[in-house]
Amino acid sequence: MGCVLVILALLLPRVVMFFIWLLTDWFGRAFGSWLIPLLGFLFLPYATLAYMAAVLNSGGLHGWWIVLFIIAIVVDVSHWGSTKSLRRLRPGRA
Questions:
Q1: What is the pTM of this model?
Q2: C-alpha distance from residue 72 to each of 23, 27, 29, 88 (Å)
Q3: Where are the alpha helices (DSSP H) in 1-94?
């Protein structure tokens, strides 16, 4: 079951975040308020999932969890850049 959750998180991070919020208390244990997970849901879903996994599994960003968190941020930010470049390539759209 854990492998299925990881594969779904890689493909559809916001859907997985919604079901985690709906079915577990992981967001409440990993974050102090509701604002950071909401912003993570909107802007950095992979980084939010990576941070939540790090906090729940090791109590914070330690060791390899830092590397995973940085990779998640790079993936999220690169998604923004690819979306912007695709808009530039499409003629006739602003």
A1: 0.79
A2: 23, 18, 20, 25
A3: 2-11, 13-23, 26-30, 35-43, 45-58, 64-89
